[in-house]
Amino acid sequence: MIGACLVCPATLNWLTRRNRTCSPGSETPLDDGPGRDRHAGICALNPKELQEKFPAVDKKSAGRRRRPIKGCAATPTMVRSYRRYEAGPTFGTVCSATSNAVWVSDATSSRTSTGAGRAYVGANEDVLAWDIKKGELLSRWNDKENKSEVTALTQCAAQPDLFAAGYNDGSIRVWDALSGQIVVSFNGHRSAITHLQFDREGARLASGSRDTDIILWNLLSETAEFRLRGHKDQITGLSFIRTPIIRHQSPHTDEAVDLGAQSESEIEWEEKYLLSTSKDSLIKLWDLSSPHCVETHVAQTNGECWALGISPDGEGCITAGNDGELKVWRLDLNIMSELSQSVAEGTKKSDALTGQGILHRQGKDRTIGIVFHPKQDYIAIHGSEKAVELWRIRGGDEVHRHMQRKKRRRREKAAAAGETLPSEASDAIGTPEMTDVFVPYVIVRTGGKVRSCAWIVQKGSKSLQLMASTTNNQLEMYTATTYKALQQKAGGSKEAPDYSRHLAVDIPGHRSDVRTLALSSDDRMLASASSGQLKIWNLKTQSCLRTLECGQALCSAFLPGDRIVLLGTKTGDLEVWDIGTSTLIESIPAHEGQAIWTLAVHPDGKSVVTGSADKSAKFWRFDVVEEDIPGTRRTTQRLKLTQTRQLKLSDDILSLCFSPDERLLAVATLDNTVKIFFVDSLKLFLTLYGHKLPVLNLSISSDSKLIATCSADKNVRIWGLDFGDCHKAFFAHNDSVMSVSFIPHPVERDEAHILFSASKDGVLKSWDGEKFEQIQRLEGHKGEVWAMIVGRTGETVITASHDKSLRTWQVGDDLIFLEEERERELEEQYESTMAANLDRDYVDETGQQAGTDEVATAGGKQTITTLTHGEKIIEALELSLPDLELMSTYSHQKAENPNLAYPQRHPQFLALGNIAAEDYVLSVLRKIPSPALNDALLVLPFSQLPAMFTFLALFLQRRTFPELAWRVTYFLLQAHMNQIVSSTALRPLLEDVLRGYEEWQEAQRKLVGFNLAGLEVWGRDVREAEKGGEGGGFVGETGVEEEEEEERRTEKGRKKRAFASVA
């Protein structure tokens, strides 16, 4: 029976279907009538028509409330939706302490030169390019899919616009500096990248990681060549070693032909060796042609090796460890040139890597960086302290003179002691020690602990220039006098070298962690304060407007008018700053040397209350007083804070908050409780008990009905302000919750009880204070979140963290539904668990790495992405092979019967425009990124190989992307060789594949031969034209000579980097 007021959705559906059917005894549907919507059918009937159309059995039953039908809601319920917050601009970070810095000359960029070059640094998950002279941010490279921080950076020497960035999750991205786009991404390591190194030609990239592995990446084919295992701890240094080529393979035989004596200009170089150091105190020399370790030495005597520095000529290196110990090594390039053959023949007589001696620098901390000057004989060495030590390498003549002086002093000392001296001619000078060759030059004191340093090489500069990135979020550029200039200036007298801080990039960030944030009333300006600095930011442009030197700030607030910022410091002073004139108006000793932990401005804007560790809360009134201007008769107005009242408590006050209705004042104390007082009388109204550790922050909702508290016990509690009852206590974070806040002035009434919480676990969360459910979890910070501020209407939330970044979280276009959000979080948790289990065979039962012998293995890594790509390949093969057979049968039958009907294909092919089966498989393969193709093919079971080889044979025979087809074939043969050899069913398919490959290879050989012959003819014509003095043709009379001169100027052996995918 249908009532006249409410109809459940199931009944409405039934009514709609009934309305669209014919009435009894009629052949046409019911006509549209008055009050009836044509598209909605009977759903649009008014109550009177419904009552007439479906009359009740009797009037009594018609007026009675209907019993709800099982499975149908009595009333339609609206699902609550929330606004979704998204990560907005990030600012305040100059450089991170987790990554090194790379200096680049302005000559390598098309940008206007400023004379000081550019610095590329890692800033959490971004890579930033800074103009060192102007202190401006030139570009920001950010991959939205990446959430890991940058841990290593390096530049390609062959193509200076290419940079490789290693991340904390083990991924590597090669960036193009001109476009700011990713060229290629690699994912093979299990943990953070520690070191990256390009070869000189820019065709290969070596990466070292904390997982103790070294992977060699081929940038041309965008694949991992192999993984080198042998070290037992994280990699701390990598370098390609250039060796001269002394043998060439004969074109007629397989034997190597000795090239004999060559001049320096005729020597050809190759990079077939890799030098690596590790925290396990070992230094290893790897042969990359037949990947294996050829030499292993103990680098440091104190147990750990933390740095590796290679000389510019490649004939020496220095390793460093703990306690300031440095070890000098010699690399014999001639022995290395014959090393492969001597090892194979078993005739190796001496090591290519030999230790020369030990040095000790002045600092006794761990040495983490050694950088040779590319042009001069200087070395920059630094540890983790606030200093960079510059060492000088003496030349041969200077070493000889130094040894002569040592000999003379030795003879004078022996003569004074009455010892018998040998003759002057027979007394040898002696072999110089490493301390005679490497001498300390000057110690550069920096403004923070050094993370990395780089030499700055500029044309026309006669001084030493050094760039240092520090862990306190700044870049510094220092200039030091060279030894030669010092000798000329001093005239032979011994004068200490001088250095100075020339430039710095420090304004866009704080030196220490930001402890407090404050927003202006219009949410346009942000005040952030740390220990010693107060910065005012423009939120729209993320630019720093003011930098003021203040005390160790703990709390802050904008005063009404947004021209004055009030700071509470750890020394108990209240600092009043005028941001318009950048002056300190007044510093008030408010709490007698005890820290001011909190302050809150009264809702009427006429007073402020401060809470301190002296167990008191003081009330201050804002007064405007007239002050005389010294030397004149004029006066000026000045803000003055006058204490009016004081509230004494029994414990330290940690947080204060006024209720928006101006009735109550909530005070959090060190005894884990929250006390609520009446503002007018300061009488106690409520005491909130429940937290097990001190309450760190609190907030009252805009309607003054709820109060939220957060504590060091990791909990957030919501209380009612009417009776002080705890509505809900939930475990909010995995660490102390530092801040909690409701939206101060929500636009919509249903957002009045939405609150935010920030914690030391680096996560920001939003909560529904009525349903007591988590709305959204926002991750992005790489350290503890110390401060949080919510915008006036909740459109923006700003957080400050230990990672030195200020992050904005802004309302996006999407909405959040709690059930969908929980499902998404469960999916992410499931994917992370699956990703952790994909490589479980990498770690054996004892927790050690599997295969720790010195071996070369595959460099791939299974991820969720590669697993998804592999499943798509399997799905495409299962779908396409039957269709291929169907269409092949149809083609044969069509030749005999032209009127044969077209077969019924799978809807997937019809949806793609009646695509052929082989084209569909090819499109699936082409959509897989080249670096992930091998790992995706590993997902294929052996049972799918016949189908795959069937399509690969078609690709090769039809010459459709034969490079991709042969790459897939070659990898599958490598991965499944044992099973393929023992299978007879695959033989015909492999023969088809081989036949197609040979035909394609022969065609390519003919094409290349034709082109080479054409180039020879062209070159011969050009040479003849030049000899005859003719200036016509493609090249002018001096064109070839100019090109040859240009080639001689270019470093031999370097090729222009060109990325090309095999696919």
From TrEMBL:
One Pfam family matching this protein: Beta-prop_WDR3_1st
GO cellular component: Pwp2p-containing subcomplex of 90S preribosome; small-subunit processome
One annotated GO molecular function: snoRNA binding
Small-subunit processome Utp12 domain span: 918-1017
WD repeat positions: 162-185, 186-227, 270-296, 507-547, 596-620, 688-729, 730-777, 778-811
Domain of life: Eukaryota
Positions with biased composition (Basic residues): 402-412, 1051-1063
UniProt protein name: Small-subunit processome Utp12 domain-containing protein
Organism: Hortaea werneckii (Black yeast)
